Amino acid sequence: MRSSVRSIAAFAAAALLCLAPGVADADDTAVPDGCQAVSFPVPQGNLAGTLCLPQQPTDVVMVLMSGSNYNATYWDFAYQPETYSFRRAMNRAGFATLTMDRLGNGDSSHPPAMTLTATATADALHEIVQSLRRGFAGAQPFGKVVTVGHSLTSGTSVIEATAHNDVDGVLLTGYSHTLNIAEVLGVIATYYQAIHDPVFAGRGLDSGYLTTRPGTRAKDFFGPDADPKVVELDEKTKEVFSLSEYPDGLTSTLPGMSSLIKAPVMIANGSVDRLSCGPAYSICRDATTLLAAETPFFAPAAKLHTFVLPGSGHSVNLAPNTAAYQRAVVDWVNTTVK
C-alpha cells in the first residue's frame, strides 16, 4: 500500500509538468440567513468562508472544508437543503459551523495553481483553529473545535491534527488507509484543464487548474441511487483544484501519520465509495469492518469511531440517505467530543 500511494503521488507530480500557472477570478456567493461571510488572510491571499451560529449558545464549532472537486456548496447544498445541507443539520443540532473554501476555489484567492499544496491548507487550518479559540469574526471564543474534511481535506485535517495537536475532534469522510489504487487512477483520468470546461470558460483560470470532465461525476462520486437533480446541480457547482495538492495530501493515507492524532476521530465512508473502500469495497461492508481495517492506524487516544452509509459513493453529503450520516455525526460529537 505504501508504494502504491507513492506511485499515485508520483503520477500527480508528473502530470504537473504539462501545466502552466496563471490567475483566476473569485465567484460571489450568497450568505445564508443567520450567517456571516468571513475572510481569513493567508500568505497567498485570503480564504473565504461563512460562519453560522445555532439559535442556542454553543461551545462547539465545526470547521468544514471541502475536497479537491468541491467548494463550500458541498456543505450547504442548495437543492433540498433540509436533506442535503450538512451545515444546516449541524446548526440545528446546536453546533456552530465555519465553512471555508480552500485556496484556489470558491470565493478564496486563486494564486498560481502549481503553488497550491495540502500542507499549506493544513497550515491555514491551524491558524483558523487558533482564531476560533480566541474569538473570530465577532463570535465568542469556542472551547471545542472539530475539523471536518472530505477526501483531500480529510488528508489536510490529519496533517493539521498531527502537526499541532490543537483540535478536539477530527471527522474524516471519503478517507481510509486502504485506497483502491486502480479506481483512484481512474478518477484522476477524468480530470482535464478547467479552461476547456464550459462551467469555467472566461473566468481567467490558468491552465494548471483542473476539473472533472462533463458527465463523469456520477460515476466518480455518487452511488447508484443518487437523485439526478443532485448530480445535475453538482455538475453546475463543481470546482477546480491543482494536482500539486495531491502528493503531500496523500501522505496522510500512509501508515504512521494518523497514529499521532490525540483527539477523537470519526471516519465516515459510503459503502460504494470507489476511492476509499479498497478493492471490491472490501473495508466498507459495514462500520465494524471499517473499524477493524482502520484501528491499526490510530492510537487509543483517537477513540476511533466509524460509520458506513449504505449505497453512498465518495460524496456522503449528497447521498439520498445522508440524514443517517448526519445523525451519526451529531451523536459522535455529543457523546465523544463534548
Question: What's the end-to-end separation, in Å?
Answer: 35 Å
What is the string of helix and strand elements? HEEEHHEHEHEHEEHHHEHEH
Q: Radius of gyration from the CA trace?
A: 18 Å
Count of individual helical segments: 11
Element layout with pairings:
Blueprint: H1 2-15, E1 35-42, E2 45-52, E3 60-65, H2 81-84, H3 86-92, E4 96-100, H4 118-134, E5 144-150, H5 152-164, E6 169-173, H6 181-188, E7 191-193, E8 210-212, H7 217-221, H8 228-236, H9 246-249, E9 265-270, H10 287-294, E10 305-309, H11 322-337
Parallel strand pairs: 3-4, 3-5, 5-6, 6-9, 9-10
Antiparallel strand pairs: 1-2, 2-4, 7-8
Helix pairs in contact: 1-6, 4-5
Question: How does this structure look, described?
Answer:
- With 338 residues, the chain is of the alpha/beta class.
- 31% of the residues lie in helices and 17% in strands.
- Strands 1-2-4-3-5-6-9-10 form an eight-stranded mixed beta sheet, sandwiched between helices. Strands 7-8 form a two-stranded antiparallel sheet.
- A hairpin with a 2-residue loop joins strand 1 and strand 2.
- Helix 1 runs parallel beside helix 6 and helix 4 crosses helix 5.
- The longest helix is centred in the middle third of the chain and has 17 residues.
- It is globular.
- The N terminus is likely disordered.
